[in-house]
């Protein structure tokens, strides 16, 4: 291998080496490069799958905060790979802007501002069946403001009465009132303030990245969530790829399973090629394969063969699975190389 | 509500060319036509063969990327340091 063949960033590293080291550098680089035609996907699948069998099935771990349980272990890994829309235990880590990062009072104030507070948390809501009345008692000022829109009869010490003819109407109003959000961001259930490396950090149960990023005082650069779909929707596909890698590595590292990060990177790249986050499985990557035979061989055989017949699909036999089915050499390893012979005209014999 | 106003404000910032900043988002650039052709020639691919990115992706806001333009992404990779990745803009 020559130094000219090195990719840009590697070449910069190469140029910095001593003369003696340069030869060794090239040799080591050559060893690290994957040979053309190597079945990297299969290797990645096995490399993630084998440690997966050793994982504890159900582990809940505490990431710095005792009150929050972070799902780790196999269920979480499956959640990541299957690109589930909302993870079971969504958690956000929110850092504060630099000027507030050491201000505990500000952190507590922000935590209170982020946390969802509903009307039913500060009110006592009762239905009087006999009088056909809905009584709401509250001492909260903001709650009073909302209630004033519903009824004009404000009694003493914050007692509101709503009267309706039908009981079902009262029930509807009660449900509506209970769901009214006084303050906070939708989806953030609880917020904790903790100290981490000399600064105050907020941990939130539940996740809403868009809402948190719009808040004042939040470090927009470092706010993260473990909900990959929210990351994809608010900060884009490349960020989602990074999130997949970090989340998957977090799960594997936590159980001391040594999986090379390049396998995870390959999976994450494959999950995001189309510009959206796709699951690994029949709904995502495997279902989007070009070849009919490969799709039929994986899952839902009848559906794919029937559809192929209806729409007249053509199989170009470019992949592995379809070539195994029809008994041809597969395009992997030495199979990727096609041999062409250029016929030479035979010389006429001198006779 | 304060939150609503803030949202409008952020929208305004984005429309003025303010770029999205988050530690998860690597640098996105639009390749000019000359570089794009050179890239396609180097890897011997057509635009269909490149990985895709949607036109309405939040990371593309303020970059002036149009359908069919190629985005160069400078990733910080744990295995090679800095790695380049290319995505072609598709309909969102």
What report would you give on this structure?
The complex is a heterodimer of chains A (351) and B (92). Helices cover 43% and strands 14% of the residues of chain A. With 351 residues, chain A is an alpha+beta fold. Among the domains of chain A are: 3-33, no CATH class; 117-183; 298-336, DNA polymerase, domain 1. In chain A, the strands form four sheets. Chain A has a four-stranded antiparallel β-sheet. In chain A, a hairpin with a 2-residue loop joins strand 9 and strand 10. In chain A, helix 3 packs across helix 12 (261-271), helix 4 runs antiparallel to helix 11 and helix 13 runs antiparallel to helix 14. The mean pLDDT of chain A is 81. Chain B has 92 residues and is an alpha+beta fold. Chain B has one domain (2-90): RPB5-like RNA polymerase subunit (Eukaryotic RPB6 RNA polymerase subunit, Alpha-Beta Complex). Chain B has a four-stranded mixed β-sheet with strand order 1-3-4-2, with no helix packed on it. Chain B starts with a helix and ends with a strand. Chain B has helices at residues 2-15, 33-43, and strands spanning 27-30, 52-54, 70-77, 81-90.
């Amino acid at each position: 291998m020559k130094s000219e063949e090195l990719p840009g960033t590697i070449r910069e590293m190469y140029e910095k080496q001593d003369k003696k080291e340069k030869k060794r550098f090239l040799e080591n680089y050559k060893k690290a490069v994957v040979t053309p035609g190597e079945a990297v996907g299969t290797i990645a699948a096995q490399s993630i799958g084998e440690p997966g069998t050793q994982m504890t099935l159900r582990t809940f771990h505490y990431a710095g905060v005792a009150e929050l349980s972070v799902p780790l272990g196999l269920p979480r890994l499956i959640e990541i790979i299957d690109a589930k829309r909302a993870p079971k235990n969504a958690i956000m880590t929110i850092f504060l802007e630099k000027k507030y990062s050491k201000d505990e009072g500000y952190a507590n104030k922000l935590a209170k501002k982020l946390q969802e507070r509903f009307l039913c948390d500060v009110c006592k809501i009762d239905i009087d069946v006999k009088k056909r009345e809905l009584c709401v008692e509250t001492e909260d000022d903001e709650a009073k403001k909302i209630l004033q829109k519903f009824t004009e009869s404000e009694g003493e010490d914050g007692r509101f009465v709503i009267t309706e003819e039908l009981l079902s109407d009262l029930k509807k109003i009660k449900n509506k009132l209970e769901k009214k959000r006084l303050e906070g961001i939708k989806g953030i259930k609880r917020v904790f303030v903790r100290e981490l490396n000399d600064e105050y950090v907020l941990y939130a149960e539940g996740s809403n990245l868009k809402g948190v990023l719009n808040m004042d005082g939040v470090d927009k650069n470092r706010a993260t969530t473990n909900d990959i779909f929210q990351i994809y929707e608010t900060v884009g596909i490349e960020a989602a790829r990074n999130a997949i890698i970090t989340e998957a590595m977090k799960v594997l590292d936590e159980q001391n399973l040594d999986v090379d990060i390049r396998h995870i990177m390959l999976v994450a790249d494959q999950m995001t090629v189309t510009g959206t986050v796709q699951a690994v499985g029949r709904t995502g990557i495997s279902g989007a394969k070009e070849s009919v035979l490969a799709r039929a061989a994986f899952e839902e055989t009848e559906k794919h063969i029937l559809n192929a017949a209806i729409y007249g699909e053509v199989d170009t036999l470019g992949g592995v699975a379809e070539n195994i089915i029809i008994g041809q050499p597969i395009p992997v390893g030495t199979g990727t190389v096609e041999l062409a012979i250029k016929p030479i005209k035979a010389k006429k014999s001198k006779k | 509500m304060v939150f609503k106003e803030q949202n409008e404000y952020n929208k305004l910032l984005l429309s003025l060319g303010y770029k999205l900043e988050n530690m998860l988002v690597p640098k996105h650039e639009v390749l000019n036509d000359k570089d794009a052709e050179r890239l396609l020639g180097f890897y011997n691919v057509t635009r269909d063969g490149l990985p895709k990115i949607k036109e309405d992706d939040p990371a593309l806001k303020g970059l002036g990327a149009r359908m069919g333009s190629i985005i160069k992404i400078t990733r910080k990779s744990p295995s090679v340091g800095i790695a380049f990745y290319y995505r072609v803009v598709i309909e969102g």
